[in-house]
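How a chain folds remains the central question behind the approach discussed here. The record that follows shows the chain in one-letter code together with its fold in token form:
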Amino acid sequence: MAYSTTRSTFFCPAGTKWYWEFVPTTNYNYASCGITTNSAGWAVNPGGTTDGHGVGFYDVEIDIDGTRTTPSGPASTAWASGDIIGFAYDVDANTIKKYINGSLDYTFTSVPVSTDGPYSPTFGDFGGAVAATINVNFGQDSSFAGLKTAQGNQDDNDVGDFYYTPPTGYLALCTDNLSDPEIALPGDNFNTKLYTGDGATTLAVSSVGFQPDFTWIKNRDQADDYTLVDSVRGATNYIVSNDTDAEVDDSTFVASLDSDGFTVGDDVVVNTSTEDYASWNWKAGGAPTADNDNTSGAMDANSVALNGSLQAAYTPSGSPSLYPKRMSINTTNGFSIISYTSPGTDSDATIPHGLPQTPDMVIIKNLDSTFNWDVWGSDLQSGYDLLLNTTAAETASRWSTTIPTPSLITLKDTYEVNGTDDYIAYCFHSVEGYSKVGSYEGNGVDNGGPFVYTGHEPAMTLIKSIDQAREWWIMDNKRDPYNDDGVQVLWPNTNDAEGDNYTNYDLDYLSNGFKVMGDNSKVNESGQTYLFYSVAASPFKYSNAR
């Protein structure tokens, strides 16, 4: 099809080098090949982006982010019908080498540094009324479906079937050539657990797979509030995501966080006979056993749980001005829970988050007063935030313009995050193959929305429009185990019961991300930007599309 573009869903992570080949035939002079980022809104061909980044090759021309040039000096050569064109992309060096029939033709050394995710290979044409035919080999078939005589060349890992041997260090685009993920079994760190209430005094919900440090519960059948508990505040102390309510201590909601799940009491919000519930469970660092009472220096013994062990002493880096009461930190899965008390000094304050790198999302709730939840994400505007308990678009005035650092969060002097009360903060950073915080642009197309790369097959996604007043939305792979036409919808900013089989909200969970299939404005309004958090069922290296 003329003026068309097709992008690979294999995105190239940092520290990697990749090789692929293609043969242009019909209208070969209109064929194009290049790389684009996930958010790029292409014009008609690789490189011709309306946003994001892209680099495209067309015979002797190169298009960089929509600007086409003809290189001087060692100029690129035009290809002919039947030529075998090879591309070698070095992610860290920001270079692409173009080969024609096995010989290096041109090296482009200025691939734009991406600010919106990794690049992926892209093919297209720009022929107007005519269409180019492109036969691509990512290492699956060096005959190009019978066009050539197969050569059987492999990469350095003995992977692939290429016509020409890939340059040293460059690999076939396949999951075998991805690095082993740091978290091979995401289910040891996050799990959605569904259960049915029995109305008894207590109900043990087991088979979560680990002792949760953060559990978020919703009655799917009734308009009941969400219940959120964690091991830092203690299981009986719950807060509500869909309201501003202060923390309540009541064991009839959640009685305990157990070695393989949790136990609920007999409150109807969490345990009504025959009613169905969803729970989302995260592992942090375990349960601290004592409050820190220092104002500086090392934190008290047993006030910090780090990757499952209590720390006799923990000295936060970065010179914070506030010290947490308790911390539960998992440096492997990128999740920490921080409780703190603010003295309310009418000035910004800094507090350690405990993670090894800068958080991508922070969720904070004032525990003592009826203030809104505060959600910061790295893709929001500077000084802007979202409110978990409302539909509001991103708004300034509640979050500091000083973004989090690899050691500290800066809290603005507002009561939502830094008054004279107690607070809880949930901090997340993306972990390749396990979790991803990011954003995507909606296009408003039913059954044809954006593909969003996460690097894993999702187990759960949380989505919110940044630009418009829209509901938050949660989808998971337990309530929706198949990609079909319609999903079960829950909105964490409202106590509404689960919406059944909503077709215009539909997402397809894929091996390395999700595809927005519906056109509802809450997930896919044209021109609108959406914040998302996704956590894995399986890393891309080991995933199969469902």
Observations:
- The mean pLDDT is 91.
